[in-house]
Amino acid sequence: MFQNTPKTTYNVQQNKVVQERSGLESITERQADFLMKRALSHTPASLHINQTQHCKQLAGLVSSQAQLCRSNLELMQTIIQAAREVKKTCQKTFADMRWNCSSIDLPVDSPKYRPDLDRGTRESAFVYALSAAAISHTIARACTSGDLRLCSCGPIPGEIPEPGYRWGGCADNLHYGLIMGTKFSDAPMKMKKAGSHANKLMHLHNSEVGRQALRDAVVMKCKCHGVSGSCSIRTCWRGLQDLRDIAMDLKTKYLSATKVVHRPMGTRKQLVPKDIDIRPVRENELVYLQSSPDFCAKNDKMGSVGTQDRQCNKTSVGSDSCDLMCCGRGYNPYTEKLVERCHCKYHWCCYVTCKKCERVVERYVCK
């Protein structure tokens, strides 16, 4: 159904220059993109974008984003929700690793990204990919739930379903989500006075990788009908997987990301794999320009907050193990008292009573 959705091919040198408003001409692409994400993720939950003047409260939007906000206030509210989901999902996805997406959780008055996201690292690649996927994902779901008046359910698939199945329900409108999400996400990279050409190409590529992961996350969802739950007929529709599943797919791409260099290829410069430049960059791989620190020790210049006092798993052999998380420095144990419901009993009809039980667990934090 969505396989025919046109993909975006980026040639920054051919992109039409976006003319910025007075006062924004000197803002670089990286600064504008960061200001936008910071403004959205720190926007108070109580703020509802229901008047055009509210768009002015979202400092950092480039002119095309501000115009989109003024012309589609409902869409802007959805994008704000997506920004919050990016922060929450990223930190949950990397909770078991040295880099735990803490770079996103910045004070609202912070002047710029931490260097780990500002230098074109693989962490930056993941954040851009997840952000692009989340915005389109949230818009597609908002169409389904009726939160956006300018879109509705996705189209019914053209293929004939198997016997016992029928198309129905309300499909997530991925097509609309991709169109509007791309328009908003990629706007900062098309500013007149942008940052480095290499960074623009990297961010545009990784954003498209995120949207491709979204296209690959379309699955069939069905609801059963029949006497006494017999499920003799199933009503089905095309829906998106949860954002956390898409984030896990992008995490796999993060772990196998390709380091690239910016060099002439024909008549213009392109990103090519650093060590295997006999092949072009693949459409489904995340790319990065600068190597990351090991994130073991605090290093503000490199954007590392370190792993001191991070909780680790003594019995694990994965990235959350005390050996890997603590970088060989060792760890300190501490005990924690947990109060849980226990000895629950069902009473006819219809309630449950439980007792409260205490247990002491041992935790470990890195030295």
Automatic annotation (TrEMBL):
GO biological process, one term: cell fate commitment
GO MF term list: cytokine activity; frizzled binding
Keyword hit for Glycoprotein: yes
Compartments, record wording: Secreted, Extracellular space, Extracellular matrix
Summary of the function given for this chain in its UniProt record: Ligand for members of the frizzled family of seven transmembrane receptors.
PANTHER family named among the record's database cross-references: PROTEIN WNT-11, WNT RELATED
Family: Belongs to the Wnt family.
Protein name as annotated: Protein Wnt
Lineage of producing organism: Eukaryota, Metazoa, Chordata, Craniata, Vertebrata
